[in-house]
Amino acid sequence: MSSSLSGLEDAIERYCHPQSARALGAPRHADGADDFGDAAETPEEAAVQYIADRFAEGVFNFKALIAALGAPLTSLDEAYRRSGLTLLAAVFHTLAERARAGVPVRAVVVSSAPDSSGGGGDGAGVGAGAGAVSSLLWLSENDFGSVTQFLCDRASKDFACARPSLDALQSVVRCHAPVYLGGASVQPANDLITRLCDGIFIPQLAQHLRGTCFGIFKAVLEARVESAAAAGTAAGGGGGGGAASDEAAATRSLVESFARAAQGEKDPRCIMVMWDCCDLVLRLLPASGGEGDLAQQVFGLLSVYYPITFKPPPTSYSITKEDLVNRLRSVLCGHAVLAKKTTRLLLDQLKSARVPIKVDVLQSLAHLFCTTSRLSVDLQIGELQEVSSAILEELVGGGGGGTEDRQLVDSALDTLRRLATVVSLHTAATGGAAWNLFARPIMTHCMDVLIAGGLSLIHI
Question: What's phi and psi for 132, nearest 5 deg?
Fold first, then answer.
């Protein structure tokens, strides 16, 4: 039981040298339990809980914790050094889980919180201005900067400790990013990501480490999206002047760092988080098409996976092919800034001879126009006739009678109906030529059918 520990140094010793817990005389009982608690609680778990509990109670502060960990963190012995960082990561994870559950972990005075009342994230939101006190954070802003820098440096320079360093960094960032990285300036977020990526080539890391890095990216990007939503701005927005230019440059650097890290990802577990990051990046970009080269980079990350034609291996746990299809579609077809590029990709894929791919394309077209709606129609006025012609071709040419042909015809008809609704409502609201362009191929086909059937249009 953690109460049997005599202090912080004792807890650290028993975690980093668990064999000493037995040597120091903790009595073992006949049922296998011992004085560390029930049989399921190991000395390491007891040490983590003890440190987290005492830290939350204010028995010692963060600087005292780091000072007590000095021996293992600076040791020349690789295993001992790794155990010290693993303990720090476990304590941070425990505090983060408590914060996410709304359990107070520490009273921290926030010197520079966002002005919005949201705060969001994993339960770490403060929603108050400078001088507010948060019980769901355990690091001050200065400590946050020092810790993240230390963990980024250790992950890049001490490969044996890369895993616990990145795990600890993810726990810290998830809880603190909404407050310390979600302010008016994007520069602190960019600085952290730059430190992370400068010393590590993420695509070459093992799967767990890549996934952790993408989790860090996601937490940082979520903080930036919440900040931009509260301020009503997007990348490159916010007026002119040198400050605006600096912010745009920082946003660009942040997005480009992510794009480099995500290149060539193949593991479905990492891909799902990477697509979440793509979705967040696209929310930061203007829907009108500004920052077009950044949008192109994100489109490149997404389009290489379309269409999904493989099934995840058993090692991907609960991720299914349908999960991948739906998530990719929601991101690739869910942003007006990608509408023209995505439409061209879909029209090219519609030429496939495989019916399942055609059905996927038709469903994706419907999702694209129905989700992005008015902006998609405005941005793609020149493609409307080609889109309706392509759908019509699948509708009238898929009548072979087989099950797949029936599915193709049903999908084409459903897509045509849904797009017709979107375009007609848009035209009724704004005027313009959208409906005429969309409907022309359909009306032409109907007239051809009538004429071929021997009816004279003159008598209609």
Answer: -70, 155
Compute the residue count for the chain.
Answer: 460
Q: Are 305 and 255 in contact (CB under 8 A)?
A: no
H/E segment holding residue 109: strand 108-110
Task: Decide if 314 is inside a domain.
Answer: no
Residue 161 and residue 208 in contact, taking contact as beta carbons nearer than 8 Å: no
The answer as to whether 374 is a domain residue is yes
Cis peptide before 307 (omega within 30 of 0): yes
Lowest mean pLDDT among 35-44, 341-350, 402-411: 35-44
Instruction: Give the pair of three-digit tokens for residue 392.
Output: 């019509």
What gap in Å lies between CA 207 and CA 82, rounded to an integer? 19
pLDDT tens digit sequence for 69-126: 999 999 999 999 999 999 999 999 999 999 999 888 876 777 654 443 334 444 444 3
Q: Which of 301, 298, 372 is nearest to 333 (CA)?
A: 372
**Which run of H or E residues covers position 134?**
strand 132-134
Q: Is residue 47 part of a domain?
A: no
Among candidates 41, 165, 37, which has minimal Cα distance to 92? 165
Q: Is 17 exposed, middle or buried (0-12, 13-18, 19+ CB in 10 A)?
A: middle
Contact partners, residue 50, CB within 8 Å, separation at least 6: 2, 3, 5, 11
Q: Count structural domains, the chain.
A: 1
Rg of the Cα atoms in the chain: 28
Furthest-apart CA pair in the chain: how many Å?
104
What pLDDT, in 10s, does the model give residues 386-403? 999 999 999 887 655 677
Domain residues for the domain of 411 are 362-460
Asked whether residue 420 is domain-assigned, the answer is yes
Residue bearing tokens 């020349």:
76
Residues facing 241 on adjacent strands? none
